Amino acid sequence: MFSPFFVSLRTRIKKNLYLKYITGQFSQKPLELTFPITNKISMKKLLFLALSCSLWACKDDEVAPEVKPQQPTATVTVWDATQWSPEQPKGTLADGATVELFTSRQDYLSKKPAYTATTNSSGVASFKDIPEGVYFMVATKGGKTNTWRDAQGMTRVSDTLFQTEAEIKDPTQPVQDNVLPGDFKCRDLNGDFVINNNDVAEAPFFTITVRKDSVNTARALIGTTINHAYTTLAAVEEAFSTEYLKISAAHQQVVMLDGVLSDDADCQITNLPSGWCELDQFKYTAANSIVENVWKTHYASIFQLNRMLASLNGIQGDKAALIAQLKAFRAYLYLELQTYFGTLPMTEQLLMPTAISAGSIYLTRYNIKKDLTAAIPALPDAAPGTKPWYITSSAANMLMARVALFEINGDTAISYTDKVIATKRYALADSAKVFTAPASNEIIWDITANMNSPFKDYFVRGGLTVNFCPAIRYTETYLIKAMGKILKEDLPGANEAINIVRTRGKKPAITLTNLDDARLELETLYKEELYREGFRFARLVLYNKAQTVLGSKGYQAKNALLPIPQSVLSAYPNLFQNVGY
Q1: Is 554 left (phi over 0), alpha (psi -120 to 50) or beta?
Q2: Continuous segment of H or E residues that includes residue 219
Q3: Spatial distance between the Cα atoms of 388 and 377, rounded to a whole number of angstroms
Q4: For every one of its 581 residues, what pLDDT tens digit does the chain have, with 9 covering 90 and above?
Q5: CA pseudo-torsion sign 188, 191, 193, 196
Q6: Could you give the CA distance from residue 425 to residue 444 in angstroms, rounded to a whole number?
Q7: How far is the C-alpha of 135 from the C-alpha of 153, rounded, in Å?
């Protein structure tokens, strides 16, 4: 081994003396070395060293390596915005996401990234030894991305999410419709204060700037253009199954509301809060908690159904039957609200627009009928065994018949009840057995998920076993048909329908001699046959009998409709209170 001195000396010679020697440029003059020599070395020795390097084939790796300057590094943190929650304002960290860096938009279109990395369990993608510069940054995972390129190569631009409904409705911010908390808050690129399809930029949009001697970091929020959207039919069906439980509970509250408002029940039922007694005694105001809860739970489910319907627009597959279910359920919720509140604000959006107004009662009913008419052709004749709460074509026809009664249209009411009767699927069961088995031929539609207190304490039928509360049963079919006949002044037809129900109740058939007697008998049957099922108060109001029957409880003309909750009026300035409140 040579000493360090000789190694160093050999290197210098290789670069200077040896080259001159082998090219014939070597001079016999003494050399002027540019480094100090502490030992006396003769020219012959120096020449010997030079020749030795040649003879020993000195290798490049024996030359001190050149130190290359270190290239910059960069990191990109990726968040899955579809997993947003109030506790996770950006969503959750996305592991396994792909982050691509492009030097130009053309490279992006050609799918030629300059650098690619995958995020780790902390959602971080790391890039090492990349030159300084500005790179377009695209993050993706399973269809979720931060770049939503359309057919024209344009994209909406957003790297923030809406956090609250108040933020969405903030009048100082651009309007972006059909969004929910957790959806992307897009940029108003053209400055017109409305976020729509005109607010797009050339894709990709987001960049990361890489500099040496800097901490080069960026973040990317990935998701879909509508984070709130369900992405598969199965996901929509699962959400529908969950929402049905809430719809069932909301229906039971309305049934109990009708009974307490009428002479079917009073507020002394076990576990009823004070708000119920205000209703029972007609001392309620627009601040009543029960009234507010009925409004808000119904609308909450309506908006969830709207969300499912909007999601289905972007899902492929056989979805007609599911769309029909969602529209029929939405119509049902609106019909329940219309029964007690009258004219309604109606929307297919995901949140109630701040500037919405209620229109007219005719428009309210028109929209209900529109949904039902669209749904009926795709509704099943019988609910599937796995989803017995699904609405059937017969149930939807009965809802149409109810609307016809509100419109005092006897012909239409009869036409829909006759469709149900013509199916021959249903029969009037013994009164003592109606509520023991939902599968009875008496039941047209049952949406009872469970029966908990206080509803369980409210919905009693004397000594009979009650396991559910049907939304529609066959008895009502003949009662509506009888009313339709009365409206048409068809006394024999009304008499026939009434006697069918009387016979089921083990009462003898009667012969009615005038329409007034037919009305009185029909009201008696409604009260007896549909006791505490949510029909009494609504019918007393519809046929102007409420003042006579309920005046002693404190009923006044204004009580024909419930007040719009004060909290709703405060939030939506174009809605107006019902008369008298």
Answers
A1: left
A2: strand 216-222
A3: 19
A4: 444 444 444 444 444 444 444 344 444 444 343 334 344 444 444 444 444 444 444 444 445 555 555 679 999 999 999 999 999 999 999 999 999 999 999 999 999 999 999 999 999 999 999 999 999 999 999 989 999 999 999 999 999 999 999 999 999 999 998 899 999 999 999 999 999 999 999 999 999 999 998 899 999 999 998 888 898 999 999 999 999 999 999 999 999 999 999 999 998 887 788 899 999 999 999 999 999 999 999 999 999 999 999 999 989 999 999 999 999 999 999 999 999 999 999 999 999 999 999 989 999 999 999 999 999 999 999 999 999 999 999 999 999 999 999 999 999 999 999 999 999 999 998 877 888 777 789 999 999 999 988 998 899 887 777 889 999 999 999 999 999 999 999 999 999 999 999 998 889 999 999 999 999 999 999 999 999 999 999 999 999 999 999 999 999 999 999 999 999 999 999 999 999 99
A5: negative
A6: 9
A7: 18
Q: How far is CA 254 from CA 184, 245, 250, 335, in A?
A: 36, 15, 6, 11
- Give the CATH number of domain 230-379+547-581: 1.25.40.390
Enumerate residues 6+ apart whose C-beta is below 8 A from 516. Answer: none
Record the tokens describing residue 457, joined without a space.
């304490």
CATH code for the domain defined by 389-448+461-543: 1.25.40.390
Given a contact cutoff of 8 angstroms between Cβ atoms, the answer to whether 114 and 208 are in contact is no
* Both structure tokens of 42: 């003769």
Instruction: Report which of 40, 39, 43, 15 is spatially closest to residue 29, judged by C-alpha positions.
Output: 43
**Domain boundaries, given as residue ranges, for the chain:** 4-62, 74-222, 230-379+547-581, 389-448+461-543
Nearest to 494 by CA among 226, 347, 502, 339: 502
CATH number of 74-222: 2.60.40.10
Angle between helices 393-406 and 361-375 (to 10 degrees): 160
User: 335, 451, 491, 346: which is closest to 400 by C-alpha?
Assistant: 335
Geometric angle at alpha carbon 137, from 134 and 139, rounded to 5°: 165
Largest CA distance in the chain: 148
**Is 389-448+461-543 in the same CATH topology as 230-379+547-581?**
yes
Instruction: Identify the bridge partners of residue 500 per DSSP, sorted by sequence position.
Output: none
Rounded Cα distance between 247 and 237, Å, is: 15
Region of 463 please: left (phi>0), alpha (psi -120 to 50) or beta.
Answer: alpha
